Every structure is written in structure tokens, then in C-alpha cells.
């Protein structure tokens, strides 16, 4: 009699909340699809790239970073997806543990980046240095530097004389390049009402002092601009960090709840 009652109870009552279970499933599924997209973009970028200057510049190929991030995300979200669907404790625990690891790693990088801001700045400077050196060898780097300089209204990393790092713009006496002592056009301040764009506006600028240079180009280096941009957009940076970590925290909490519900369910049946 007792046993029959128990069985009836087990059929209708469950410790597992279906809303949490299906939410975790769809949530993981969404990011699982997203991870496939990231891998696809990474592979596409890798195949597209004929030359390897970008890889040389950044030590690690950005396309490889995309592929690695995508593959890691694929396995983590796969565990969450199937774990929730099959109510599999091992997969859910793997999901929760990996997500916690990723979250803590990101947190550590953010905290270190904040406390070692000088070193972060130096590291960024090294990247920009490489981008300037390879400016003419790689269209992506050229577009990147042009974009940075236009958007942040800056020129070079410390200042416009950094363009001497590049073989073509190098200001050393005897440099046969026609662009000797010049800076790229993206350094130029727009002239209101200009009909014919003066693409040579940056020519000879490196020989000029700050005041002279101000007349034709952005005289401030991108390092100072970047620091000021971050300081004036702290709220945006915080929102971005939150947007990145919130889904992770939600995933960790929901999977933990689901794990304990499944464990309750198992012990109630035993
Ligand atoms: C540009 O920066 C370099 C290195 O920081 C410095 O030596 C040089 O005096 C600066 N030039 C101008 C014109 O500000
Ligand atoms: C410019 O070129 C000369 C000769 O190749 C080199 O010695 C110098 O270091 C270069 N300038 C910069 C800023 O790299």
C-alpha cells in the first residue's frame, strides 16, 4: 500500500523545475550555435589570409584565437545543453566547473590589467609598434591603424614621429622612400569644405614641431587618446564587462540549482 502510494507520488511530483531545465537548455543551445559561428569566422579568416604578417605582428594569429575560443565554448555549451536535456549530473558539473574556470580567468585578467595598467599600456604599445612597422605589408593592419587614428583623432603611439618605425615613413637622412618623414593620410585633420582631398597633407610632418604639425594632423599620440577614452567611458567598459560575465554567472547558478534538484530527485526515488 505504502509502496504504491510512493510510486504514484513519484509519477506526478518532481524536484526538477522544468523552467530552469529548459531555460538552461535553450540558453546553452543559443551559445552553442554562436560558438559554431565563431569557429566558422575563425576558419574563414585563416583560409582567406594568404600572407602571415598579421600572425607575425600579434605573436598569435587572431584567427587562431577565434578558433580556440569557439572550440572551448562549443564543448562547454554542449555539456550544458545535453546535461540539461538528459538531466545528466556529470555533464552539468563539467559545464558548471568549466564556466567557473573561464569566469575566474577573465576576472583575473581584468584585475591584473587594471592594477598593472602601465604594463598593459606597454603591451598595447608593442602591438601598435608592430602594426606601424607592417603598415604597408598588410591591408588589414593598414585598415586597423587608419581606423584607430581616425576614430581616436590621434597619430602614432606616443606621437606622430613614431611613424619613423615604418621603413617607408622613416625620417632618417638618406631614406630613398618618397614618403620619408611623412605620416599616413589617416593622421590628417579634415579640412572643412575641402573639395579635392589633399592626400599629401601628412608629407614632411615628422620634421615639424608640435605647433606646426597641429595645423595639418592630429598631433596627439594614440596612447594618450586611448587612456582618455577609457577614463571617459568607464561606464561603457563596466557595462561591457557585465554583459560578458552575466550570462556566465547565470549559467553557473542555474546549473548548480539543476544539479541539486536532480540529486534531490535521485535520493527521493532511492
Ligand atoms: C615624440 O615622442 C618621443 C618619444 O616619446 C619624444 O622623444 C619626442 O620628443 C616626441 N616628439 C614630439 C614632437 O612631441
Ligand atoms: C630608420 O631607419 C634607420 C636606418 O635604416 C634606422 O637606423 C632607424 O632606427 C629607423 N628609425 C626608427 C625610428 O626606427
Report on the structure:
The two termini are 17 Å apart. By secondary structure, this protein is mostly helical. The model has no long low-confidence stretch (mean pLDDT 89). The protein is built from ten helices and no strands. It has two domains: 140 residues; 109 residues, Tetraspanin (Cd81 Antigen, Extracellular Domain, Chain: A, Orthogonal Bundle). Bound molecules: 2-acetamido-2-deoxy-beta-D-glucopyranose (2 copies). Keywords: Cell junction, Cell membrane, Cytoplasm, Disulfide bond, Glycoprotein, Membrane, Transmembrane, Transmembrane helix. It comes from Oncorhynchus tshawytscha (Chinook salmon).
Q: What's the structural blueprint in terms of helices and strands?
A:
Layout: H1 2-12, H2 18-48, H3 53-58, H4 62-86, H5 89-115, H6 117-133, H7 139-152, H8 210-214, H9 222-232, H10 234-269
The structure holds 2-acetamido-2-deoxy-beta-D-glucopyranose (NAG) (2 copies).
One 2-acetamido-2-deoxy-beta-D-glucopyranose binds at residues 164-165, 170, 172.
Please supply descriptive tags for the structure shown above.
270 residues; mainly alpha; Cd81 Antigen, Extracellular Domain, Chain: A; 10 helices; 68% helix; elongated; binds 2-acetamido-2-deoxy-beta-D-glucopyranose
Individual helix count: 10
Largest sheet: none
Q: Number of DSSP strands? A: 0
Which class best fits the helix and strand makeup?
A: mainly alpha
How many domains make up the 3D coordinates?
A: 2
Structural Rg: 27 Å
- Strand-residue proportion: under 5%
* SSE run: HHHHHHHHHH
Based on CA inertia axes, which overall geometry fits? elongated
Bound molecules: 2-acetamido-2-deoxy-beta-D-glucopyranose
Which stretches are poorly predicted, pLDDT < 50 over at least 5 residues? none
Average pLDDT works out at 89
- The N- to C-terminal Cα distance equals 17 Å
Helix share, percent: 55-70%
GO molecular function: enzyme binding
Family: Belongs to the tetraspanin (TM4SF) family.
Organism: Oncorhynchus tshawytscha
Pfam family, one: Tetraspanin
Amino acid at each position: 500500500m505504502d509502496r504504491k502510494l510512493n510510486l504514484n507520488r513519484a509519477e506526478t511530483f518532481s524536484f526538477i523545475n522544468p523552467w530552469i531545465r529548459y531555460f538552461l537548455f535553450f540558453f546553452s543551445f543559443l551559445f552553442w550555435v554562436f560558438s559554431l559561428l565563431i569557429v566558422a569566422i575563425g576558419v574563414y579568416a585563416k583560409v582567406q589570409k594568404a600572407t602571415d604578417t598579421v600572425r607575425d605582428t600579434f605573436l598569435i594569429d587572431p584567427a587562431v584565437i577565434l578558433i580556440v575560443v569557439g572550440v572551448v565554448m562549443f564543448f562547454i555549451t554542449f555539456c550544458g545543453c545535453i546535461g540539461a536535456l538528459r538531466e545528466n549530473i556529470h555533464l552539468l558539473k563539467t559545464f558548471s566547473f568549466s564556466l567557473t574556470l573561464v569566469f575566474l580567468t577573465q576576472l583575473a585578467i581584468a584585475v591584473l590589467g587594471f592594477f598593472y595598467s602601465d604594463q598593459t599600456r606597454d603591451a598595447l604599445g608593442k602591438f601598435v609598434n608592430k602594426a606601424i612597422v607592417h603598415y604597408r605589408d598588410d591591408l588589414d593592419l593598414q585598415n586597423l591603424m587608419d581606423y584607430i587614428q581616425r576614430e581616436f583623432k590621434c597619430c602614432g603611439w606616443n606621437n606622430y614621429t613614431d611613424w619613423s618605425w615604418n621603413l617607408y615613413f622613416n625620417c632618417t637622412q638618406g631614406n630613398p622612400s618618397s614618403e620619408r618623414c611623412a605620416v599616413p593620410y589617416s593622421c590628417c585633420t579634415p579640412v572643412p569644405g575641402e573639395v579635392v582631398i589633399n592626400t599629401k597633407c601628412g608629407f614632411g610632418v615628422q620634421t615639424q614641431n608640435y605647433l606646426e604639425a597641429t595645423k595639418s594632423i592630429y598631433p596627439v599620440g594614440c596612447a594618450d587618446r586611448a587612456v582618455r577614452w577609457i577614463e571617459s567611458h568607464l561606464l561603457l567598459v563596466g557595462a561591457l564587462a557585465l554583459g560578458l560575465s552575466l550570462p556566465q554567472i547565470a549559467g553557473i547558478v542555474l546549473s548548480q540549482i539543476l544539479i541539486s534538484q536532480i540529486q534531490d530527485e535521485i535520493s527521493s526515488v532511492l
